Description:
The protein is of the alpha+beta class. The protein has eight helices and ten strands. The longest helix is centred in the last third of the chain and has 22 residues, at 221-242.
Amino acid sequence: MNLELITFAETFYQSIGYTKIEAPWTIESEVMDITRPEGRQGADLFGKKLVASAEQSYLQLITEKKLAPGKYVATTPCFRDDKEDLLHQHYFLKTELININFKNEFSRKDVDIMIEEVLQFFSFFLPVKKQQTKIGFDIVDEKLGIELGSYGLRSHSFSDDCQVQWVYGTGIALPRLSYVIEQVKKKGYHQAVIPKVAPGSFLKILEETEEAKDAYLNRNPIMLLVELADLYGAVELFLEKEFPSMTIDDIKTMHEVTKRAFQNGRR
């Protein structure tokens, strides 16, 4: 499983305003009941339920009064009592997004905002589109129409003084995304699945780093040198966009200072 994609997803969502948190993998049965589909029992572990999604983890934290209103991102395993096939497994990894509100002020507009954010993320890998469902929306790949994530708006009364509304959605699920990419895209220069990001962003630096790593691991020295050159270019374009008063020479100057400090054993 390409865990680098999870790291990239968490980095992207944090860069646009989500706060990364650690989420519990087990929850109370009553919490699972809030989002449990009809006919599903869930998986048990030491008197609790294993999460089917980090959405349930967030709700557990709300019941424990450990989560304030806001936008969060967390990654957990998901345990499902689904029938297994090429797209469904009893367990997989998913990065889940949530936007929590205690004042019932959310609307369809807030769901659309999250969907637009996730559409941008998936577009780094393949063409995708939004599709309406009976309970909300899915994002699917354009070629095969396979669902990559589900999105919607829910509310629940946790107590008389705790009425909660939240927008939920999939940030990335593995191996689902990897499987779809394998079906719709042929391999190019690289063996690994690597996002394609617009030049000038910090994420472009991460892309070029992953491409250099792929070349290194596949023992392709010529490609590695090419990717290192591309990495240099990505840093240069990032400086032009985010720090226009500085150049790559300024980084070199700082490098020489750091080099001197290490050589002299003083920092």
